[in-house]
Design brief:
four-stranded antiparallel β-sheet; 10 helices; 2 domains; disordered N terminus
Amino acid sequence: MNDYGHGNGGDPPPPILPSAGMRGPLPWMVAVMTMLAMLGLAAAIGLTPAADALSGQIAGRATIQLVDVDPLVRRDHVRRVRDVLRDAPYVAAMRTVPETELRAMASQWLGDGVIETGMPLPALIDVDLVESGRSSGTDSGMSRLRAAVAEVAPSARVIAHADWLGPVAGLMTSVGWIAAGAALLLMVIAAAVAVLSARAALSSQRATIDILHLVGATDVQVARLFQRQIARDTMVGAGIGGIAGVFLVALIGWQLQLVVATLASGSHRASYAFILLLPPLIVAIAVFFARLSVIRALRAMP
């Protein structure tokens, strides 16, 4: 048999453009980029709706704190505040926190010594203001609430939940957008790595390309060879990174399920299905730009 047949045990002929495969850096770099992009997108999907849910929960809510040391005066102030707010048009709901609940919360943070020493605890009244389509309406209701409470209980403090937890919701929103931007940037970097790999392969196979041109191959046909090679390597890398990304997202989500159960309710689990679209999207973008880069480089060759 001649050198071009299958005389050596029927082995297929070697590829025209040999690929390093898993021994090369491209699949592993794409795998890392894919995994990190999936983690970033998962963070964006989880944090942004959770921040919106938290903002909705704290909007128009306040706690009235009565800190009088004398229990009789404190109870009288609680009664006066409840009487003045019971029929207020800007109050949607009102609840006095039971003393047993206050002592349980204090014991959780300060220990059982709170009960043993008889430390006086402030009285707390939770108030939900009437919802308004405009933030100015909520601010007006909060101002009216403070004025009404100050009139009957000057020593009372009105604590708006938005003043305490508003920065937390803003931080969560910012981190979510940063994570989304990082995921997009990683997709661009994965495409850039594929382009650089294609350019490097193009330079190393210059002699083979010249032979292909001599036998009549066009630039588009030669670009298809590189496209198949890049697609094969990026698909392997995106597959590995996708499996690792799904595993890590599921693991982190399971660990945080009990910690942030109330915040996570703001996001829908179905939204996480978009994470599965990242690996094929990264492959498509990388192959597309690698093909354009190769065709442009081939046309620039003498």
